[in-house]
Write a structure and sequence with these properties.
Length: 366
């Protein structure tokens, strides 16, 4: 368990960080007037000439210190949209909400159905669907880090909206409700038991239909968000799909382990890419992606395009020509089991309150 002195030392290091230094690419346009916007978010949209009525809608959530334009420039989502005719919607955080531009995935006020940032993003989606006549059956959400954790929030709180999603270096839904808990979960300490994880999603809405499919990406050398969060995400969503504990398929894609879990109908419900030796960031293929991916802070060249492979898993882009080989992939869930064997990772309520008061006084928490 992280000690109080360690927590306070980390909090002293927290300062608003400049936005990732990638110039605006001029491809996105502001998307305004989408609703009451209780989460006070901004929004941008990309409308390719190739997207007509009935186009898919892809929601992309940037990571901390990033903005919509910077993330789009590096990830290439809008350029991939040119090729395959889907619309890209970018919710964007503001410093008034979070000094480091992180989506507030751990805040009960922002991570629940019908309120805060989650409702703002839902309103953006509804407005885009109405204005641009997108396909209501093909809506997708993905994000990096805090944006990935917020993508998990959207899949859990509005599962009827999405056909599928993707979480890159993110965290499961509902595992933290305070700043200290968020730090603990990011570093792989504590959290709900495996048996409780799926229940957190079930209780987030009244959904009774088919659950969204999920693509999970994580670097094995990520020192910001521990890789066991990828295992916890799989443990959270696998029971909802009725998928077996063991993956249905394992292979190697461009040198990286890839696992797939299929539901009873044979549909690929969950996939996982474990990017060996990658730190914290979105995996890119700068040389060969075919849609102009570029490296930047937290946007890492790994010779594999998460953008293209996620879109292919969703069924809205052609399968890329990656090098695939059959292989037995070593399972990762033992990390999650080990984490939950650690005693009492939760700080006492009084300590939590003290830390949060200090954060608010410093302008780091609203």
């Amino acid at each position: 368990m992280r000690t109080l002195s360690d927590t306070l030392a980390r909090l002293k290091q927290l300062r608003p960080v400049p936005t990732a230094s990638v110039p605006a690419n001029g491809r996105l346009q502001p998307f305004v007037g989408f609703g009451s916007n209780p989460g006070r978010l901004k929004s941008c949209i990309y409308l390719p000439d190739s997207a007509g009525p009935g186009a898919p809608l892809v929601v992309v959530l940037h990571g901390c210190t990033q903005n919509a334009s910077a993330y789009d420039e590096s990830s290439g989502w809008s350029r991939l949209a040119d090729q395959f005719g889907f619309i890209v919607l970018y919710p964007e955080q503001q410093r008034a909400n979070n000094p480091n531009l992180c989506f507030n995935w751990f805040s009960p006020a922002d991570a629940a159905r019908g309120q805060g940032e989650a409702l703002s993003i839902r309103q953006m989606i509804a407005a885009a669907q109405t204005r641009h006549r997108t396909d209501s059956e093909r809506v997708f959400v993905n994000g990096l880090s805090a944006g990935g954790a917020m993508a998990a929030v959207m899949l859990a709180t509005y599962p009827e909206v999405f056909d599928a999603g993707a979480v890159i270096a993110g965290l499961p839904f509902g595992v933290a409700c305070t700043v200290p808990e968020a730090f603990d979960r990011m570093r792989g300490h504590g959290g709900p038991t495996r048996e409780r994880l799926a229940g957190l999603v079930k209780n987030a809405s009244r959904h009774t239909g088919r659950w969204p499919r999920l693509s999970v990406w994580h670097g094995t050398a990520d020192n910001t968000v521990d890789q066991l969060n990828a295992s916890a995400l799989i443990a959270q969503w696998r029971p909802l799909h009725g998928a077996p504990a063991a993956p249905s398929e394992t292979d190697i894609v461009n040198g990286y382990p890839h696992r797939v879990w299929r539901d009873a109908s044979g549909r690929a419900a969950i996939e996982e890419y474990s990017i060996t030796n990658l730190g914290h960031g979105t995996p890119l293929d700068v040389a060969s992606s075919g849609h102009g991916e570029t490296a930047a802070p937290f946007m890492l060249d790994a010779n594999i395009s998460s953008t293209r492979l996620i879109a292919s898993f969703w069924g809205i882009a052609a399968q890329p020509t990656e090098v695939r080989t059959s292989a037995a992939v070593e399972p990762v869930p033992t990390l999650f089991e080990r984490a939950n064997s650690r005693p009492g990772a939760l700080p006492q309520a009084g300590i939590q309150r003290t830390i949060e008061d200090a954060l608010r006084s410093a302008g780091l928490l609203r």
